[in-house]
Amino acid sequence: MTAHSNTLPSGNDLAPAPDAPRHPTAAGAARLALVVGALGVVFGDIGTSPIYTLQTVFNPADPHPVPVVTANVYGVISVVFWSLMLIVTIFYVAFAMRADNEGEGGIMALITQVRRRCAGRGRKAALALAALGVFGAALFLGDSMITPAISVLSAVEGVKTIDPDLEVVIVPATAIIIVFLFAFQRKGTTVIGKWFGPVMAAWFSALALLGLGGIAHHPQILRALSPRYAIEFMFGHFDIAFFALAAVVLAFTGAEALFADMGHFGRKPISRAWLYLVFPAVLLNYMGQGALILDDTANLSSPFFLLAPEWGRIPLLVLATAATVIASQAVISGAFSVAAQASELGYLPRLRIAHTSEHQAGQIYVPWINWLLMASVLVLVFAFRESGALAYAYGMAAIGTITCTTLLFLYIARTRWGTPRWLLATGGGLLLAVDLTFLAANTMKIVHGAWLPLLIAITAFTVMVTWQRGRAVVTAERERQEGPLRAFVERLRQGEPKAASVPGTAVFLGRGKDTAPLALRANLERNHVRHAQIVILSVETQPVPRVAESDRILVDDLGSDRDAIIHVTTRFGYAETPDVPQALRAVERRQSEGRPLDLDRAVYFLSTIQLRAGTEPTMSAWRKHLFIATAHITADAAEHFRLPRERTVIVGSHIEV
After folding, report:
1. DSSP assignment of 420-462, as one string?
2. How far apart are CA 369 and CA 352, in angstroms?
3. Rounded-to-integer distance, Cα 323 and Cα 200, Å
4. Half-sphere exposure of 555 (CA within 13 A, CB side)
5. Which domains does the chain show, CATH number per domain?
6. Chief location of this protein (predicted)?
7. How far apart are CA 278 and CA 291, in angstroms?
8. What is the pTM for the complete model shown?
9. pLDDT tens digits, 520-544
10. Could you report the per-residue pLDDT of 132-174, keeping only the tens digit for each?
11. Under a CB-based contact definition with an 8 Å cutoff, are residues 393 and 453 in contact?
12. Of residues 2, 34, 7, the one with CA closest to residue 362
């Protein structure tokens, strides 16, 4: 999936400097802090799956029900165990997390690597692989809508085990929790972030204890760890097992988070948390639920909550609700991160992004995405009304993202590491076979809800590729109107067009160093004004999360050091928010001798474009209108680049697409 935004600094941020003395106690405490932090952010989704997975597998109302007999219970538990082992432990923890992009993980990090490595290898391959990655990111956005709905619903449904008459409060209570959850986003997760890890540590401890209690009543369930039961279930009862996979996939929803959050916690803390606590805890709970079902099939109504003694169900309900809210928080933050990175890579318009922490760059809030998600989640809650109805929609979103990630990873394994083809064919073939089997099973549930994430993903994918195409058309037309920069500067040096010189510094933001900004042309040709110091500035988004300060700027005197016209290129990573005035401070220091910049009083000029649907066959008519409609959510450029509003001038023009 997707790349998530988190509440903690990266593992590298907490690591001691190479030459610093390493105190064993301090180093151990730092590692423990990262592991606990990862529990709170990374594993919320996959850690709350035991609430509803087995209940969905054996749901008697399912159109393809799994008979509740001993062999099937053993087989399902075995399939759950080996699916977690293959997809999460082997693929994500052992392999995918090594395919980072400058320390960042997630499907957007894979897309940037693929785009970079496809350069010069053929346009068709680059387009196909990039489109695959974008579709995976679009599926994750669908996942971001479904996760809060199914997670909070499944937790609140636990009230039925306390008093069946409380069923009427499930949907209203869920809606209230979700409204509060999204309303809180603008404040950031700093306030409650420090509680995420301890709450989830308590949650996983409860999972393990409840599971051990169930296993104690039926210890034979431990036999399900043998792959024999999974194989016999899959091949001996394929007509049943195949459809069961559409629900088994719920056991590893959230697996993408392990990869996506790697940049904020580091590979080792996430791996340790999974191997030493999360995996054992969820596995024990699944086996405990299996034992409970074998004891009495009536426990199928809510096997997770019925694992607890009657006196412990209210505390468990409270803890489960807190855990599902945390799981929802993680995926919402991930949606913010994916949308922000997609915007920086040119797949979405420039979005308004608020940084909610002065110390941790990864904490961001994207208002437009937040309110879109809230509206979508509420619609899902009121439309589906129970977690079981959402289960198949959830599974399709998860396995679709995982399959896209696997395909991109295999390409990177070949081009980045030179992995032999025979090894990719065998190991990668096995992983793909598992993914595609789960995917095929979920396609059988399209009419039962799996259509929902596909519809969301297709819509988001269409918007993203349309924006990318329309942006390319607008850029080409804009470059034609702007004309060559060096030729324009040469005319300016020769006194054309004639303009009155005024003191001070003017900064003109442009698209690159090849063309003259429209605002510069307008200021000279219409206003007949030229500032004493002219800076033509372009902002580049690099295919890396963050750019080192030493590589932040590049100054070009445009062929002459005799006058005060320079071009400055500022570079930012796709995970950074461009701060143009701050970046220009480095130029100010460079120019301190000769012609210094006066940034404290500098005037910034922006060009704004009004789009119109033209007659040229650049895109189909409906895509032109979609592109123009999408452009309306574009964030204010002055705010995006952190320009001082009182010293920013906006010059307008229009372009037909």
Report:
1. -HHHIIIIIHHHHHHHHHHHHHHHTTGGGTTHHHHHHHHHHHH
2. 10
3. 6
4. 19
5. 11-449 (1.20.1740), 482-656 (3.40.50)
6. membrane
7. 20
8. 0.79
9. 888 888 888 888 888 999 998 776 7
10. 889 988 988 888 899 899 889 988 988 888 888 888 999 999 9
11. yes
12. 7
